[in-house]
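re: ur question from earlier - yeah i can do the single chain one, its not a big deal. heres the input i used so u can compare w yours
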Amino acid sequence: MLSTGVPRRVLAVSTRIALLLTGASVIGASVAVLLWNDFGPGPLDVFIGAIRTRTGLPLTLAVWATVGAIMAIAWLLGRRPGFGTLAAPLVIGPVMQTVLTALQEFGAPHGLAAHLVVHIVGIAGIGLGAGALIVAGLGAGTGELLAAAASDRTGSSESRVRMVTELTWLVLGVLLGGPIGIGTLIVAFLVGPAVANGHRVVDGLVTTSRRQLSLALG
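and the output i got, formated as tokens:
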């Protein structure tokens, strides 16, 4: 039967890869929305923006260079990146570049209310994308990997280390001339709950889909 043996394993792996690709694409598009909104991106994106300003690199290459450096640091600290850790940025960078280029054909939103709505939608999208990556289970995100590696070395909790690293990206990004705004604080406060909610939503959808598929296959 399709529900047993090799076909079932192939379906499971295919589902995880599909979740990885979908989640990475949603994150890339959502971050592009935040950048287009011109209200202040997240802390790491402030740093990436500074790298772009200082080097003139295209967005995709700036993302790859920054994320690659973070992965290298985490690996040196003892945490090896998984397949998903390596693959997700390869999707996120080009999607960010493509979506941002398309959005820049239109003017950024005007007015505080419009900025807030667009920013919240973008943050929710990041949460859903991150939730898909978590459910895929093919490797920790870059930030999570670094936080885990630093936690191993320092003995501090991962949440505390993550807060310190986010603050570090923000300070370095500002010092190097990266974009910052009210929206940066909104991202910092809301992205954690958004990821938790996205994980819950995606996990529920995947569990329901698997149950329905099992019933259909008998």
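Residues 182-217 form the longest helix (36 residues). not sure if urs matches, ping me
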